[in-house]
Amino acid sequence: LPLTEPGIYADIPMAAYHGQLTIGPSISSSGLRTIYERSPAHYFKGSYLNPKAEPIDTEALRFGKAAHSLLLGDEVFADNFEVAPFVLGYNRNEMANGKAPKRGEDPDWTATSKDAWKDQVEQSGRIPLSQAAFAELQGMKTALLREPLIQDGLLDGEAERSIVWRDDETGVWLKARPDVLPKAGWVVDYKTTTDGRDFKVSRAVTDRLYHMQLALVCEGLVALGFPPPNQYALVFQEKTDPHAVTIKPIDVEAIMVGVKQNRIAIRRFAQCLSDGRWPAYEISGEYRIPPRMIDEVSHIETPDWLRALEASL
User: Which residues contact 27 (CB under 8 A, 6 or more apart)?
Assistant: First the structure.
């Protein structure tokens, strides 16, 4: 690293993927979606291009990353995470004062030794997980593997592959990292959720612009000489028992709109790099970011809002 040639790469750590991955500035789907939906200023605030950016690390993000890794295979999970060898830790000061340990506490671990273990894991580049979180993840994996479409290979493919290419129009580097490198013409991504009902996941697609993410994978594969995928889907799974799964097909028409939205964001990114400015909510000429056209959407398969948005691009 940094990479100098377009291609599909294995064994690139997540931190490297989100950092200075290529010889020139690069941007992934999350950055393009932030630029399109919010502004360049919102993107730059958390970008690796900002020397003052602080890493975003929450329990929810860690759990989502762990779910993806575990579902991609035990080896991938072990490379990125380590499960705590203790339950809750144990307060020996309370024991010294005659208090009995609480149910589930591990008397062999103090708060100090627990913190030392976490520090050691984080210094190794991995993420620590509690035993409770790991048990929840195992339940998710079991439930997901019961789904007929998953058993038929919907999520099969090469894991942990980074697609990297240079945009012909602007010259900026683009990158995408699908959960699995798609097989048989499918592009599929896995998402954790708190509510897997159909109207909820449809809303998540529109609110988080997931069709732009799938579109970027398509664009990357085509740029590297692969045939364009012809089927797209998102797999949503609830994080709590019974870990219900909703598989949401995404219309090709939505992907084509996503391609246009990506193009607007890519041009804006390139313009900001050229100008050395990352404005918020600025409107200027062809780089104007059009207003959202979404109100209430229940079915992404018949995307009237996307047709209206396409007409405005």
Answer: 172, 173, 174, 175, 266, 269
Q: Which two tokens stand for residue 61?
A: 């993000």
pLDDT at residue 287 greater than cutoff 60: no
Please state whether the predicted TM-score (pTM) of the whole model is above 0.85.
Answer: no
Maximal CA-CA distance, the chain: 73
The CA distance from 88 to 77, in Å, is: 22
Residue 101 has what pLDDT?
53
Identify the pLDDT of residue 4.
Answer: 96
Average pLDDT over residues 223-236: 92
Could you report how far apart the first and last alpha carbons of the chain are, in Å? 36
- What single letter denotes the amino acid at residue 271? Q
Report the 3 state secondary structure along the chain.
CCECCCEEEECCCHHHHCCCCECCCEECHHHHHHHHHCCHHHHHHHCCCCCCCCCCCCHHHHHHHHHHHHHHCHHHHHHHEEECCCCCCECHHHHHCCCCCCCCCCCCCEHHHHHHHHHHHHHCCCEEECHHHHHHHHHHHHHHHCCHHHHCCCCCCEECEEEEEECCCCCCEEEECCCEECCCCEEEEEEEECCCCHHHHHHHHHHHCHHHHHHHHHHHHHHCCCCCCCEEEEEEEECCCCCCEEEEEECHHHHHHHHHHHHHHHHHHHHHHHHCCCCCCCCCHHHCCCCCCCCCCCCCCCCHHHHHHHHHC
**Least confident range of 39-53, 54-68, 200-214, 222-236:** 54-68
- The tokens for 195 are 């509510």
